[in-house]
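re the bet — no i am not wrong, look at it urself. input seq straight from the record:
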Amino acid sequence: MNGVAGLREKARHLLAGAMLAIGLVTAATVAAQPAPDAVSSDPILRIEATAHTAMIRRIATDRENRYAVTVSDDKTARLWSLTDNRLMSVLRVPIGDGNMGKLSAVAMTPDGGTVALGGWTGPTGEDMPIYIFDRASGRLRQRLSGLPDVTSHLVYSADGSLLIAAVGGKNGNRVFDAAHGYKPLPSDIEYGDDSYWADFDRQGNLVTTSYDGFVRLYASGRYGAPIAKIKPPQISRPFSALFSPNGEQIAVGDDASTSVVVLSGKDLAFIRAADTAGISGPEISSVAWSTDGRYLFAGGWGNNFRVRRWENAGAGKHIDIDASNNTVMQLVPLRDGGMLFATADPAFGIIDREGRSNVRQRPGQLDFSGTLRKLRVSDNSDTVEIDAINPSRKFRFTLAARRLDVDPPNDAALKPPVMAASGLDVTNWEDEHRPAINGRPIALHNYERSRSLAIFPDRTSFILGADWNLRRVDREAKQLWEKPVPSVTWAVNITRDGGLVVSAHGDGTIRWWRADDGKELLALSIHPDGKRWIAWTPQGYFDASVGADDLIGWHVNNGLDKKPDFFPVSLFRERFYRPEVIARVLRTRDVEQAVREADEAAGRRTAKAAPITSALPPVVEIAEPPQKTTVRETRLTLIYSARSKPDDPITRVEAQIDGRKVEGAEKVLAATGDTRAGTIAIELPRRDAVVSVIAFNKNGASAPASVQVAWAGRGTEPKPKLYILAVGVDTYKNNSENNKLNLRYPAKDAQDFLKTVKQQAEGLYESVIEAPFPRSGKWTLNEILDGLDWIRKAPTNKDVAVVFISGHGAVTPDRIYRFLPYDYDPDRIERTTVRSIDFQDFLSKVGGKVLVFLDTCYSGDVFPGARGPAQVSLDKFANELAAAENGAVVFASSTGNQLSWEDPKWGNGAFTKALVEGLGGKADARHDGVVRVSALEDYVYGRVKELTDGKQKPMVAKPKMVENFPIVAVSR
């Protein structure tokens, strides 16, 4: 069995029930990929949920346990801070179709300075390089080429001078001299089967495993031939093997049984078998020792995904510890006696020295495994519903209404797939390699399993979902079309008219396909929080809820020897945020036609779509200081590098602290050259902060490069001042049709909000200053602009600005969001409204932190006639304000086109009612007398849903650089 097949066989043991085979690609797929020295530079749309969306294969940490690095089948490596559970950065390697880019191995030097990544890292199976990254900056240092198969495991020696790779396909291992440029050292390169593990002891002795049944022991410095080689008793496929801390014993886990044995670290002589009585399931493959050698740990698929811990180095009594909901892939000891674990959920966490587990990061995707019959669609497929496994909730999404519901009541109009019909006898299709139709075999790729089935209404053909492809097959077993899928297809369904296919995948996406030719039309990703969602076409047109337009992005390879770039789709918002296109795609069943119709409705000509690469923003990196820097002086110099395409030169670079632009820390550059490097000096606050650099070219702003700095100097920041602008417009001068525009509560909402914040500000702020402008419900255009100008100028970069806006908002046919002041004139819309760009222009220049509360969503059919503004969507406006270059935290009263509800019994709108309660103390989640951003978000979301019976759902958009800062101190 070669390395590819071996990894696939290992993957077969990952999930109970309808087991997932998250395998690697077939030979047929490999043959269609680029030449070994090439990688496509075409942009690739990828999910980016700030957490893994496919199984975590391996995890590594440094000697001091400051960091953890996880690698996954989702083709990313993620660097985490173990001290505060923060995602610090994402490391990316070149990727391609199929499995190229899937990472299955990671190692970190003991000092935490370097990270090595391996896996399916080449365009073909002939060269699978290892990538060496600088941990602090994320820079790619080196590519180690020449590995003939997938790297399954990487580990550095105790002093960091050696790196070993366990290689698949009977290729043994490869040892590199990390202290001298990773020069290859003599290695044992011929095994009888795949190699999955290697470990050094403190003296440099080496142990490895292989599916050929052997555990091999090598003396320090002599890695070309083993000094001992045995097949351990009770072990048929040794998977992991690790030295005890003193090097005297070696623990071995089996990939084919629940056996765990202990061997001699000197000669591999059998010492003992750990007590695995009571463990159910096929295997306990991953083992580890506590740092003091007292405990032996083991986990895998068996034992209901629990980790067993034995006392007395595996000879004593044991306990079983709940770890996660899926296979335990690796265990790594921590200095304090705890254990780091990584699972296939994907998740990772820590087992403390008392044997208690704590999951630190949960999956970034919904788990659709086991949903075979639970994908339901409406007749026109506009509404889709699925019962997820993890979290165990029902999710329903309606495209036309842009509405996501969690655990809604049952709807008989949503139909499950038809999986049986007379004349179509599909057999051996559920988690099988050899499906058949009426006794005739259906061809799949080698090692591929079929997973899901749906029969067309006319019963002449059916859809077969599999690990790597989606197929339409007729009753004669003829394949009508085949399309690659991003991951295993857990469920499929077909619309009643037979025109569309809907599928649910292992990466948490739901996708729509044209039934006649299999062309993909639309994809949907729902975040596990049940709040955020994003829908997109293969061309990149997208629609997203508030706070969700960073959930996907474009991965752009820069060749095999350079680190790829990643651009969130939010950077292309002006060009590709097209909810009116997304709304038409399923009806037209053609993306280009949907674009033409949307442009025609808006009175625009449809331009020829230019490639993404023709209008890329810059890429910026911070060279100094490194991540997690401790500072004792307020003066800090940032060393940055920025690059862009030669014809789109960088024109400006700016620095930010906690997502806000630093006054004076901006450089306007001559528009020459495609790379820039320089320094920016900034004045730090006397507190912990996130420092960022953003670069600009004619296409817009880059994604920010950020580092954390921890304040350890003398003194603390003085209390900030709080500035408040509260605008509520409920009366309109140019009103008609029996005061149809007038509202009941916006002015009262503004005053109640203002009063609550002022009452709760004592103790947290030096003083509270409110805008010196009218407080009636008749704010004019000029008064609103004056208020925005005041809040722009008044705060310093040490202060906090709060803006509350309540009233009517609208999106006009030109797709510009507008707020309606008292003197709004329906005959002069453009001249008498406050545009979203006006809000951005003022609020982006506020010196301190900015909190914006927007209660300006769609409030009913109040604009009759062709000349009135279109039905409002607040989402784009909120996302624009929260963009890195603007840096505001935005609370929006609802999402999409939902109504804003108000009721006399509340005395407010639902949004303000929840805000006032939360800021009044009910959102003090930690019970420490402080209401913070995240706690207020959670409280307001839940309370508004409760008040409106789920008809209104407030949302929050936050820049990634902004901390979870306190808003008010609760008066007790």
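see?? The domain at 617-711 is CATH 2.60.40.10 (Immunoglobulin-like). told u. also Confidence is low (pLDDT under 50) at residues 1-36, 859-872. so pay up
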